[in-house]
């Protein structure tokens, strides 16, 4: 018998299926949207990390976050990623993505063939709740395009906090209720508020409690937090998940200023749709300058785009002469809320 | 311009009037002259600058951004000025004084404009770029009336709103003398001819309250359903003002032409064809037009029905008792058949007046006005001397269809209600109401909405059509913009009919039959 060493084509190593990105030589899925026998998971956001898989490999923090959200039995087997690991006929490794606590990019190196990096959701702005993004050289770079249009240039979050503080000073008698996704955004917002000089208690909606506790356990000092569940909430700044704003929970606040922290708030029509009074442009995703800079730096042979407003990024790649293709994965939210 | 840009953004997202006023007042207090004056004029639409065309702006972009990327971006953002503000590539973010931007837009020649605009955009960060482009395209869309601006100004210093209104029309941006006055300086000289003078307003009344007064002390007249105006001819300078002091002369050239007198009079603007006063909807067609076509002038002629004289024959009559002003009014010659005098009603007792009010001779009468014979003409809304006794509102029983979450004090409550009436076996939306109920009723309605939601669209929920609301309204206009073909005036929820099944709500035909 001869063993013929044939280098595999990229789409034999990783290709989209209805359940998510599948890697035949390793027999695993990355961030599958349906239950599968073996899943590698980039980060704990609900659209990437789902329960019910046979085996899950992820960073220790992502596994712990999944246990908080879904219960300890969220998967048959759990394996914390630690250095390069053999999975089937591939070697996989996890690298910080700068998106949320525990978030990672997954590098897939087949024995023979191109190296693919699946970046998941990633962000290159400094983020006090996440390890910074690490550029990982690769042949194929798989990127999100949540903010894949040149109109998205996320401002310095400190400037957005200045706007929040200005509003709190302008309307001192009104509580400021800011909507932020429970995992990542909420804790980042709290840290930004601390950096901006808000030392006093910040009230958090009950749905944030366990995830905030977990961040504190991981060494992220969120400062004094009080529950926003009592009839009377004694803090001018209150943070809640977006879903809370449709519930009767809001009714305990008399004449609040309602805000929302999201990259989408950069576009007025989006902010208006939300019906918010104080849109704050704070995002955990790469904006246009970051995604284009990342591709330029990594100089991959090919770019694959998982989800988002991919038409803009595809056009940019075309103008740069970089082969790019959309994977059009379904099941991922623009920016989870 | 950074503070101005921030103000624009806050105003655009702040629904509550009081919050808007506070934002504006803080800005005006913190901003030096002349920038605050230009800002004020920009917000109220009184800043006349060269208007930059969308074509020019697009031209600037295609030189700088790939056309496809621009098209994708514009498609996503939906607003040209905003798209360009977001796309423009510069690292600079200078705080350019607003007056520099104003000077650029008022002084640059056509040929130099594209380069001048690009040069300015190069110096600005994104929020200032948007403010500058909104200024350049003359498209603030902030919804701030000159009236609100004057209220904010009145909160800043000693002069009250009425005093500011009185001199407002003599002022031009950047209003330096006005700000000096507010800061404690001298009152600006009223330089302009035909200034607006604060209008005297009435308070609502009912029969029970009236019984405390002697009918002999009062006169009464019809309350006509048009627009309360002040018409002036001051030495040949003619003006028509709304009761809040907006100059609406340009929309009513036919009436302006007819102001062949010397004085300032208080009256009702109406569309009148011979003796027939047209419905409010006809007058509405004349509103807000910068130019009025010949056809519209012929088919919808404007007229004035005078209630009172403020200045007449060179004399200020406002301190005289009403009976003296009325005598002068009845003796006055207006020299035009577009102008007539509002007749007084003949009554001896309040019950006589109640009978007249219940059966007015024309559908465009909204009720009666009751005025003390000895009342001086006092700007503002003094309590007592003048009353309005409105006709009872119309009511229909409608079915709640949609509810939207409120803002501010109503945060978290579904407080904006869309209701519909039957047409065959369908419910057709006919209007929206967001007041008329008590706080307790609001809580009950909110609970009902949450328990009967069919679908959600953002802040809006569609509701199972079960709850009947009695909706009161002041009048009806035929409307092409509304699906049902009618638009209610001042609709509010007068009763919640928990007892009434939806099938017994009114039909659209019932409502349409009420159109005068
Ligand atoms: Zn994510
Ligand atoms: Zn995602």
UniProtKB/TrEMBL annotation, chain B:
<keyword id="KW-0233">DNA recombination</keyword>
<dbReference type="GO" id="GO:0003910">
    <property type="term" value="F:DNA ligase (ATP) activity"/>
</dbReference>
<dbReference type="InterPro" id="IPR012309">
    <property type="entry name" value="DNA_ligase_ATP-dep_C"/>
</dbReference>
<keyword id="KW-0067">ATP-binding</keyword>
<dbReference type="InterPro" id="IPR026333">
    <property type="entry name" value="ATP_dep_DNA_lig_pp_1105_fam"/>
</dbReference>
<dbReference type="Pfam" id="PF01068">
    <property type="entry name" value="DNA_ligase_A_M"/>
</dbReference>
<dbReference type="GO" id="GO:0005524">
    <property type="term" value="F:ATP binding"/>
</dbReference>
<dbReference type="InterPro" id="IPR036599">
    <property type="entry name" value="DNA_ligase_N_sf"/>
</dbReference>
<dbReference type="InterPro" id="IPR012310">
    <property type="entry name" value="DNA_ligase_ATP-dep_cent"/>
</dbReference>
<keyword id="KW-0235">DNA replication</keyword>
<keyword id="KW-0547">Nucleotide-binding</keyword>
<dbReference type="Pfam" id="PF04679">
    <property type="entry name" value="DNA_ligase_A_C"/>
</dbReference>
<keyword id="KW-0479">Metal-binding</keyword>
<keyword id="KW-0132">Cell division</keyword>
<dbReference type="GO" id="GO:0003677">
    <property type="term" value="F:DNA binding"/>
</dbReference>
<dbReference type="InterPro" id="IPR016059">
    <property type="entry name" value="DNA_ligase_ATP-dep_CS"/>
</dbReference>
<protein>
    <recommendedName>
        <fullName>DNA ligase (ATP)</fullName>
        <ecNumber>6.5.1.1</ecNumber>
    </recommendedName>
</protein>
<dbReference type="GO" id="GO:0051301">
    <property type="term" value="P:cell division"/>
</dbReference>
<keyword id="KW-0460">Magnesium</keyword>
<dbReference type="GO" id="GO:0046872">
    <property type="term" value="F:metal ion binding"/>
</dbReference>
<dbReference type="InterPro" id="IPR012340">
    <property type="entry name" value="NA-bd_OB-fold"/>
</dbReference>
<keyword id="KW-0227">DNA damage</keyword>
<dbReference type="GO" id="GO:0006260">
    <property type="term" value="P:DNA replication"/>
</dbReference>
<dbReference type="GO" id="GO:0006310">
    <property type="term" value="P:DNA recombination"/>
</dbReference>
<keyword id="KW-0234">DNA repair</keyword>
<keyword id="KW-0131">Cell cycle</keyword>
<dbReference type="InterPro" id="IPR050191">
    <property type="entry name" value="ATP-dep_DNA_ligase"/>
</dbReference>
<feature type="domain" description="ATP-dependent DNA ligase family profile">
    <location>
        <begin position="304"/>
        <end position="423"/>
    </location>
</feature>
<dbReference type="GO" id="GO:0006281">
    <property type="term" value="P:DNA repair"/>
</dbReference>
<keyword id="KW-0436">Ligase</keyword>
